[in-house]
C-alpha cells in the first residue's frame, strides 16, 4: 500500500502593513518592515523623493545632538523679531499661535536639559551608518552616501570658543571633532582660501550628494522587493474596537492593514485626534537655493556658522541653505529668506554663477525638545508613530525604521525609547 502523501500547505499570508508618509523616515520604515516579512504599502501624495528631505543640506549629522534651544537663546528673540535677515527668523504675526510651542522650546535651554537631550539623541545617532548599511546594500548605486567629512567655519575665534562647551559634551558622548586653522581650511577648500581662519572638522559626518535621488533610490529598492507605493492623500485611519483596520484615502480608496505606521512629518498632525496624541508638532521652514552651474568648486559640505547656512555640493549643483523660520501653521513660503541666503553666500564667493537658480523650502517637523516621537499609539494599539525628527530626518531615517519595526513585531528595541514617547508632553498640555 502506498503511504499517503502529505498535503501541500499554502504559504501563510504575510501580514499587511501600511506606512503613511513616503519621505525618508517613511520609506526606511517600509524597508525595515519589508525585511521582516510584511507586505507593505507606502502611501504619499507626492512623487518619490519630492519631500522635505529633498530640500535639506544632505548631511548625516551624527553628532548634531545638541538641541536648538542653546543657552542664551532667550536674549536673541527680540533680535529675531527685528532682524529678518538673521539665521533664525520669527514672523511677528506667527508669534501668538506658536507661543505655547516656543515656551516649551525655551524651557529646554537649561544646561541640565540640554545634556539630557544630547544623551538621549546620541543613543540614536550612534547607529546611523550601521542601520543604513543593509538598506543601501540593496540599492544598485553604491555611491548614494559620500565619505567626505563635514566642515564648520567661523568668522572669529569667539565663534569657535562659544562651541567649546558643546564640543566637550559631544566628545564625552563619543563623537569626534578637529580644530582647523587657516592653512587646513585652505587645503580642504581652496575656494575658501584666505577667507576663514577658524573652523572645525567633523570626521564622523557624511553627506548625501543627491537628497532627492537618495530617497528615490531607496523607494525603488522597496518596489523592486515587492513593495507597493500609492500616490494619494490618507483621509483617515479606519478603526475596529481599539485597533486600526486600515486607511481610507481622500478619493475613497481603502487599504486594509494589520499594522499602520504614521511617518508623514508635519502631515502627521491630522491623525493626532484619532491617535490620542497630544504632541506639539510644529513645521519650521528651512530655505534653500540651488545653483545648477555655480562656477565655483566646493568639495565638502560646509557649514558657515555665523551666517546660519551651509554650502552643500550636490550632483544637481551647489545647494545653499539651512536658515530657518518660525512662521506658524499653513504659512506661505517667504522666499525672501532664500534671497538673504544667496546675498550672504555671494559675499563669501562673489564668483558664484546664478544661471537657472532654483528656490526650495522644506518644513522641518520639530518638537520643542528637538527629539522625535518613536512610539506606539496610546489609543490604537497597532498604530505606530515616527515623526518630529526636525533637521535630522535624513540622519535618523534608517534608525527609526529599525526601531519602529522592533515595536511592530513585539521585539524589545536595543535603545530605550522612553525619551521618544508621544506622551512626554501630555503633562504640560496638548498641541502647540
Describe the structure.
- The chain has a domain of 209 residues: FAD/NAD(P)-binding domain, CATH 3.50.50.
- The chain starts with 15 loop residues before the first strand and ends in a 23-residue tail after the last helix.
- The chain is built from twelve helices and 20 strands.
- Strand 15 and strand 16 form a beta hairpin.
- With 432 residues, it is of the alpha/beta class.
- Helix content is 30%, strand content 24%.
- Helix 1 packs parallel to helix 9 and helix 5 crosses helix 12.
- Strands 4, 5, 6, 7, 14, 15, 16, 17 and 18 form a nine-stranded mixed beta sheet that branches.
* Name of the level-1 CATH class of the domain at 14-64 and 123-146 and 208-278 and 370-432: Alpha Beta
Question: What is the percent of helical residues?
Answer: 25-40%
Strand fraction: 15-25%
> How would you name the CATH homologous superfamily of the domain at 14-64 and 123-146 and 208-278 and 370-432?
FAD/NAD(P)-binding domain
State the secondary-structure class: alpha/beta
The second-level CATH architecture of the domain at 14-64 and 123-146 and 208-278 and 370-432 is 3-Layer(bba) Sandwich
Low-confidence stretches: 1-11, 428-432
User: What's the pLDDT, averaged over the residues?
Assistant: 90
**End-to-end C-alpha gap:** 77 Å
Number of helices: 12
Major sheet: size, sense and barrel closure?
Answer: 9 strands, mixed
Q: What's the gyration radius in Å?
A: 22 Å
- Assign an overall shape: globular
Annotation, overall tally of beta strands? 20
- Reported by name, the CATH topology of the domain at 14-64 and 123-146 and 208-278 and 370-432 is FAD/NAD(P)-binding domain
